[in-house]
């Protein structure tokens, strides 16, 4: 039998681990925590230089700002729609690819290609498809239907949704494929011998092992939805249609006008909301994992 490690050995190993972690901790402190504290400090001041402490006055003014509320509403709506779709669709496609279909290599390449396509190329393709004289309107015209202005109507939100899914599904599929590979083959074989249907096998055997992958995909999809800006900015500029105006547009335009108090206040609020939602995701995953283990 192996002897238990001595306390001095465990302490020595922990010291070595802490020594290797110091560079990363210093980097997080210098490049993340300290700048965040500086931003929080400026959000409580009346101006960047020789400012006065105004408490939560900047936060109240920001919440009453129409542009910020519009951007927050559009971003929240995008997250509520795209994150569940990104998780469900990528998991469904990963399960389909797991079945060893014909032309599987081509399908994987087609799904992963958006990861390596430059943003400018993506925007060019989208302009060809959704422009007033683009492919979709040409087809609608040929069928005798009314054309649509995808960049200046409510259809612009649908366009952003499709763009987001097309850009992010490939990486999510990779993560779910890796999670499915970790499911023990013995369990799936036993479920098949017991006469389990594919749906029962998925719910009882595969889904419990996909908890970490689902959490990671959900968090990445949420953060990607918050950061969607570059493609939309290239498509429609700094002031797009109201349904395409996101928080990143607000941040960019505020920085352009050098309104640092408003910018710092918005950054603090966005950071707080993001950290809170990610914390809820982690708590939910821990709770689900505990129920699975208890069962």
Give the overall shape.
Answer: flat
**Separation, N- and C-terminal Cα atoms:** 32 Å
Low confidence ranges: none
Number of helices: 13
- For the CA atoms, what is the radius of gyration? 24 Å
Structural class: mainly alpha
Number of strands: 0
Biggest sheet features: none
Q: What proportion of the residues is helical, as a percent range?
A: over 70%
Per DSSP, what share of the residues sits in E-state strands of 2 or more residues?
under 5%
What is the succession of H and E elements?
HHHHHHHHHHHHH
Name its key features.
295 residues; mainly alpha; single chain; 13 helices; 0% strand
Task: Write up this protein.
This protein is 75% helix and 0% strand. By secondary structure, it is mainly α. It is flat and about 75 Å long. The relative contact order is 0.12.
Gist of the model:
This protein has helices spanning 7-42, 57-63, 66-97, 104-112, 119-130, 135-142, 155-181, 185-193, 198-209, 211-226, 230-236, 247-256, 260-294. With 295 residues, the protein is mostly helical.
């Amino acid at each position: 039998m192996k002897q238990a490690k001595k306390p001095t050995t465990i302490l020595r190993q922990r010291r070595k681990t802490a020594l290797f972690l110091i560079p990363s901790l210093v980097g997080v402190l210098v490049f993340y925590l300290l700048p965040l504290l500086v931003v929080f400090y400026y959000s409580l001041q009346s101006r960047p230089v020789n400012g006065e402490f105004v408490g939560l006055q900047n936060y109240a003014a920001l919440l009453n700002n129409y542009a910020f509320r519009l951007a927050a509403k559009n971003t929240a709506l995008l997250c509520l729609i795209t994150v569940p779709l990104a998780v469900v669709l990528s998991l469904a496609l990963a399960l389909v690819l797991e079945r060893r279909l014909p032309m599987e290599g081509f399908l994987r390449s087609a799904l992963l290609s958006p990861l390596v396509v430059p943003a400018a190329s993506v925007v060019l393709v989208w302009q060809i498809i959704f422009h007033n004289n683009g492919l979709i309107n040409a087809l609608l015209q040929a069928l005798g239907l009314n054309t649509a202005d995808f960049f200046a109507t409510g259809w612009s939100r649908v366009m952003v949704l499709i763009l987001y899914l097309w850009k992010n599904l490939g990486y999510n599929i990779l993560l779910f494929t890796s999670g499915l590979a970790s499911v023990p083959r013995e369990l799936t074989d036993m479920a098949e011998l017991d006469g389990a249907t594919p749906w029962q096998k998925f719910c009882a055997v595969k889904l419990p092992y996909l908890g970490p992958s689902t959490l990671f995909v959900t968090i990445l999809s949420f953060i990607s939805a918050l950061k969607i800006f570059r493609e939309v900015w290239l498509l429609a500029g700094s002031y797009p249609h109201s349904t395409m105006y996101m928080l990143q547009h607000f941040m960019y335009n505020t920085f352009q006008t050098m309104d640092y108090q408003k910018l710092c206040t918005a950054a603090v609020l966005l950071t707080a909301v993001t950290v809170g939602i990610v914390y809820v995701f982690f708590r939910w995953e821990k709770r689900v994992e505990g129920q699975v283990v208890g069962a």
